[in-house]
Design a protein that fits this description.
The chain is of the alpha/beta class and 370 residues long. The protein has helices spanning 35-53, 75-88, 108-116, 131-137, 143-153, 173-185, 203-209, 218-234, 253-259, 295-306, 315-323, 328-337, 352-356, 358-366; strands at 8-13, 15-16, 28-29, 62-67, 96-101, 121-127, 160-166, 190-195, 238-241, 244-246, 264-267, 272-276, 280-285, 288-294, 313-314, 341-344, 347-350. Strand 16 and strand 17 form a beta hairpin.
C-alpha cells in the first residue's frame, strides 16, 4: 500500500541492568557485556541501512532511541548505532534526536560522545529523588546518582527531560513535590509525570494480589498531578500534553508526532510502525498488523489523540469528522456539559478534569467510530 512518508523514527533497545517491579515493557535484564547485545545492535544497524536504501528515511524529522535503557548497552554500541544513523539519513541539528538514559549508566564521557554523534535531547528516567521511593520501585540507582546524571547531561545538553512517577504506595505528596522541585532546580527543560499503573503479571501485580502492596489511590494520584501542575507552572513550564510539561521551545517534537497522527517507523524488537494514506491507517508490531483503521476510524482516533494535547482540536477538524457522519461537534458539546472539555478561541480543549477522567473523554471520542 503506498503510504505517506515517515516523519518520525523509533529505535528500540530492549535491554536493562535490571527489570523494575512495575515494568511490563518488552525488555530483558542482560549484562552490559553480553554478546546478545552485540548481535542485536548489529541487526538494528542492518535494519537502518535497509530502510535507508528503500528510501524510507528521507523525510525523518525526529528520532527517538528508547528501551529498555539505551545507555545500558555502552558507548561502543551506541557509537555504532549513531554512526550508522548519521550515514543513513540527514541527522542534522534540525532533527530532534532523543536518547533515553538511566542514571546508573550515564556519565560525562557518554554525554560528550553521543552529543558529538548527533543526539541533541536526553530523556533521563529518574522517577524520584527520594531513596525510599526508589527502593519501593526497585530502581537500580539512588537519588545521588540521579543528580549526578542530570549534572553530567547538562555539561553538553540544553534539552534535558526528566521522567517522574507519582501515586506510588507510601509516596507522600511532600516527597513527590520535592522531586518535581529538584528536577527544576537541576536544570531540566522538560518533565514528564506518570502515575503508577499496576500492570498484569508484574512483581507489583503479584504483591497487590498477595496483600503486600497497596493499590494506587486515584485521589492521591490526582493530588500529585495537581501538585506537579502547580510547581511546574510557577517555574515557567507549560503543560502541553496530558503527562508532559516543558519550558517554551522544549516540547518533545517526537511525542507530539504520535499525538498528531504523523506516520512513524519503528525498528527493533517490539517497535511499532504506523503507516497511512488518505483513506487508511495501519499499525504493525513484530511484523503483524495490530490496527487497521478506515477513514472514519482515523478521524475518531485523531480527535481522541488531539485531546491528549493542551491545544485540543480546532472546530474545522470536528467539522470534517461531522462530514463523515461522526457527530463530533455534538459529542464535544456533551463532554463540555460534563466538564471534560471547554470550547474557546475556535478550539475544543481538554480541561484538567478531562485529563484526570481520561477514560471517559477518550472513550467517548473513540466510540464515534467503533
Amino acid at each position: 500500500m503506498p503510504h505517506d512518508p515517515y516523519k518520525a523514527l523509533y529505535l528500540h533497545v530492549p535491554f536493562c541492568v535490571k527489570r523494575c517491579a512495575y515494568c511490563d515493557f518488552a525488555t530483558a535484564a542482560v549484562p552490559a557485556g553480553s554478546p546478545e547485545i552485540d548481535a542485536y545492535v548489529e541487526d538494528l544497524c542492518l535494519q537502518i541501512r535497509r530502510k535507508a536504501k528503500e528510501g524510507e528515511l528521507g523525510a525523518i524529522e525526529t528520532v527517538y532511541i528508547g528501551g529498555g535503557t539505551p545507555s545500558h548497552v555502552g558507548l561502543s554500541r551506541l557509537s555504532m548505532l549513531l554512526y550508522t544513523l548519521s550515514l543513513s539519513m540527514h541527522l542534522t541539528p534540525e532533527v530532534e534526536c532523543t536518547m533515553e538514559a538511566n542514571p546508573e549508566s550515564l556519565d560525562e564521557r557518554m554525554v560528550r560522545d553521543i552529543w558529538a554523534l548527533g543526539v541533541n535531547r536526553l530523556s533521563i528516567g529518574v522517577q524520584s529523588f527520594d531513596d525510599e521511593v526508589l527502593r519501593v520501585l526497585s530502581r537500580a540507582h539512588d537519588a545521588d546518582a540521579a543528580r549526578r546524571a542530570i549534572e553530567a547531561a547538562r555539561t553538553r545538553f540544553e534539552n534535558v527531560s526528566v521522567d517522574l512517577m507519582c501515586g506510588i504506595p507510601g509516596q507522600s505528596e511532600a516527597s513527590f513535590e520535592a522531586s518535581v522541585r529538584e528536577a527544576v532546580s537541576l536544570g531540566a527543560t522538560h518533565v514528564s509525570v506518570y502515575p503508577l499503573t499496576i500492570e498484569p503479571h508484574t512483581p507489583f501485580d503479584a504483591a497487590v494480589l498477595a496483600g503486600e502492596l497497596d493499590e494506587p489511590d486515584d485521589d492521591v494520584e490526582a493530588a500529585h498531578m495537581e501538585a506537579a501542575a502547580r510547581v511546574l507552572g510557577a517555574a515557567g513550564f507549560t503543560r502541553y500534553e496530558v503527562a508532559s510539561y516543558a519550558r517554551p521551545g522544549f516540547e518533545s517534537r517526537h511525542n507530539t508526532a504520535y499525538w498528531t497522527g504523523v506516520p512513524y517507523l519503528g525498528l527493533g524488537r517490539s517497535a511499532a510502525t504506523m503507516t497511512q494514506n488518505a483513506s487508511r491507517r495501519m499499525r504493525m508490531q513484530d511484523g503483524e498488523v495490530t490496527d487497521d483503521l478506515d477513514a472514519r476510524q482515523m478521524a475518531a482516533e485523531d480527535l481522541m489523540l488531539g485531546m491528549r494535547m493542551s491545544r485540543g482540536v480546532p472546530d474545522a477538524q470536528a467539522e470534517r469528522a461531522d462530514a463523515l457522519g461522526l457527530g463530533a461537534t455534538q459529542a464535544f458539546a456533551e463532554l463540555a456539559e460534563q466538564g471534560l472539555v471547554v470550547h474557546e478561541d475556535g478550539r475544543w480543549r481538554p480541561t484538567e478534569r478531562g485529563w484526570l477522567c481520561g477514560n471517559d473523554l477518550y472513550g467517548r471520542l473513540l466510540d464515534l467510530a467503533p
